[in-house]
């Protein structure tokens, strides 16, 4: 899951434009199962519709508010970000397929197009390739 900085839509465009999508991270970012809220970029005028549809599929959406700012975080694209808790995500591809068609959703932070991961662990780097 990416999108902590609210740039996941642009990051996904870049990752899907690449011949190979490789991530380098330290072991603090690695989990066996996703259990973090999914950031979802939403058209501002569709906020209420998207919020309801995300609840309908089992999410608990929260509008991301700006720190030291009065109001929501606004993306580089001029949209809102909702952080949606789905609990432990057993099947990320399935969840992504349920989020994407919701009218007003611009993009979500589930990146399922990873080709390779280099994971820095204590004293070594583990290479994980997509099966």
Write structural notes for this entry:
With 131 residues, the chain is of the alpha+beta class. The chain is 21% helix and 27% strand. It has a four-stranded antiparallel β-sheet with strand order 3-4-2-5. The protein has a three-stranded mixed β-sheet with strand order 1-6-7, with no helix packed on it. A hairpin with a 2-residue loop joins β6 (116-121) and β7 (124-129). The longest helix is centred in the first third of the chain and has 10 residues, at 8-17. The chain is globular. The model has no long low-confidence stretch (mean pLDDT 91).
Draw up the topology in text.
Blueprint (H helix, E strand, L loop, with lengths): L7 H10 L4 E5 L11 E5 L4 H10 L3 E4 L16 E6 L6 H8 L5 E4 L7 E6 L2 E6 L2
Parallel strand pairs: 1-6
Antiparallel strand pairs: 2-4, 2-5, 3-4, 6-7
Strand content: 25-35%
Strand order of the largest sheet: 3-4-2-5
Uncertain residue segments: none
Counting helices, strands and paired strands, the structural category is alpha+beta
DSSP E strands, number: 7
Largest beta-sheet details:
4 strands, antiparallel
Mean pLDDT: 91
Helix proportion of residues, in percent? Answer: 10-25%
Multimerization state = single chain
| N-to-C CA distance | 19 Å
The best one-word shape is: globular
Give the structure's gist in a few sentences:
The protein is α+β, with helices and mostly antiparallel strands and 131 residues long.
Which short descriptors sum up this protein?
3 helices; alpha+beta; 21% helix; globular; 131 residues; 3-stranded mixed beta sheet
């Amino acid at each position: 899951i990416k999108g902590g900085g609210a740039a996941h839509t642009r990051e996904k465009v870049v990752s899907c434009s690449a011949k190979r999508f490789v991530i380098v991270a330290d072991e603090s970012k690695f989990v066996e199962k996703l259990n973090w809220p999914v950031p979802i970029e939403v058209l501002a005028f569709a906020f209420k519709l998207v919020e309801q549809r995300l609840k309908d599929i089992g999410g608990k959406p929260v509008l991301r508010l700006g720190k030291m700012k009065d109001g929501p975080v606004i993306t580089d694209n001029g949209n809102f970000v909702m952080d949606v808790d789905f609990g432990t995500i057993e099947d990320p591809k399935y969840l992504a397929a349920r989020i994407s068609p919701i009218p007003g959703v611009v993009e979500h932070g589930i990146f399922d197009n990873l080709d390779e991961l280099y994971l820095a662990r204590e004293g070594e780097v583990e290479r994980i390739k997509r099966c």
